[in-house]
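Q: what sequence does this backbone want?
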């Protein structure tokens, strides 16, 4: 989804007042009645109608009159609310180019006043394969009210909480900087996703490092659940960083064994295919009896001793409660399709709504990655406008 953030500079205090009113209304309404928005925004002389029309024109709101005259936020509207909050907080001052298009997220570069570049991940739950959407709808049918924005917010909160906890426990993850709504700000990871790497000087060492991470996560009571070449970054010195945490689960999860084995299998398969690694057991009988591995050297969840449970205690500290964990887990479980499944899901992509899932799935050119154009953003407190200029082709 394109992020035409330059519109931000034209938005007035009233525009944000109405956007916020729609956001508040969406806590209990999928479509917020126009009249309610007017009441929440509290603008004089029906002023909110004019504002809503303007927001509609910029695709920040979606109009729905099927049941009554109402509106809901689009992802772009939600993006603006999050970006504005984070800019006002001083977390970053400008938005650069898009550096990643995930299955359910968009990633952009952002920069602070002093030029430090970070990554901004905007979660977009709902941009998923047909099968996953269907599964999720089956689950969501049992809920009286929900919206994709709420789930995206939970995904962001979960990702932020896990990133922070993992960082505190010494895992190679991006630094968790801040989080607002469906938006996570983290340090920019140097290098490339492993999937883009065709050659490695020491594939066997990198493989051991990565498998070591799956094991160490399990020792901390966690399973990544989407551990594959798309979610592992590697730099020129072969330093590995793992990313993408909204789907992580505890080793006590009822499907833990399956998720763990699947993570392990993905890594084995990738290294076998891409780097021709072979995994014949080379150890003698004696070593094998004491190892945590099967005959192919695959680590076994049942043989791993959980020494330090990251979940619960660390996550609760980040505001990610057990209840929230349950909601997002059930939702994500409905369709834990892997990034690696993306080959066969292109054709089955189902739109939830045009403005929310108008996704351009395209690889980012190297030029685009490198040539980050930063433009200054300033918050003018007087009229509450956010002046932001953005280049994101
Ligand atoms: P999704 O959940 O949609 O799969 P990811 O978190 O995996 O999203 O991010 C998608 C892509 O964006 C990654 O493959 C990577 O190329 C890029 N990316 C994500 N986070 C960062 C980061 N912190 N630094 C650099 N690139 C990143
Ligand atoms: Mg990913």
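A:
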């Amino acid at each position: 989804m394109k992020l035409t953030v330059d519109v931000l500079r034209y938005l007035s205090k009233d525009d944000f007042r109405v956007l916020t009113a729609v956001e508040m209304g969406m806590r209990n309404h999928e479509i917020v009645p126009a009249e309610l928005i007017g009441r929440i925004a509290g603008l004089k002389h029906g002023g909110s109608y004019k504002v809503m029309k303007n927001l509609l024109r910029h695709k920040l709101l979606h109009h729905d009159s099927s049941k009554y005259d109402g509106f809901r936020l689009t992802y772009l509207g939600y993006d603006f609310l999050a970006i504005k909050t984070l800019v006002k907080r001083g977390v970053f001052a400008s938005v650069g180019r898009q550096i990643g298009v995930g299955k359910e997220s968009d990633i952009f570069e952002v920069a602070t006043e002093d030029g430090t570049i970070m990554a901004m991940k905007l979660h977009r739950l709902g941009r998923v394969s047909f099968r996953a959407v269907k599964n999720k709808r089956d689950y969501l049918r049992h809920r009286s009210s929900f919206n994709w924005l709420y789930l995206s917010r939970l995904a962001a909160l979960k990702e932020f909480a896990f990133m922070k906890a993992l960082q505190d426990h010494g895992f190679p993850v991006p630094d968790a900087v801040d989080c607002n709504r469906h938006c996570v700000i983290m340090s920019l990871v140097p290098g490339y996703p492993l999937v883009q790497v065709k050659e490695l000087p020491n594939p066997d060492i990198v493989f051991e490092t990565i498998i070591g991470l799956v094991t160490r996560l399990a020792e901390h009571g966690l399973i990544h659940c989407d551990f594959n070449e798309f979610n592992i970054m590697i730099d020129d010195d072969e330093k590995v960083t793992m990313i993408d945490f909204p789907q992580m689960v505890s080793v006590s999860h009822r499907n833990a064994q399956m998720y763990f084995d699947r993570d392990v299998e993905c890594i084995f398969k990738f290294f076998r295919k891409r780097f021709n690694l072979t995994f014949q057991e080379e150890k003698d009988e004696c070593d094998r009896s004491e190892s945590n591995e099967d005959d192919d050297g695959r680590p076994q969840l049942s043989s791993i001793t959980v020494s330090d449970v990251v979940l619960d205690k660390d996550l609760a500290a980040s505001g990610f409660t057990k209840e929230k964990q349950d909601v997002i887990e059930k939702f994500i479980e409905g369709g834990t399709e892997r990034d690696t499944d993306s080959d066969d899901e292109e054709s089955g992509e189902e739109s939830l709504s045009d403005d929310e899932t108008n996704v351009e799935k395209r690889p980012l050119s190297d030029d685009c990655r490198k040539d980050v154009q930063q433009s200054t953003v300033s918050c003018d407190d007087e009229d509450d406008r956010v002046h932001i200029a953005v280049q994101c082709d």
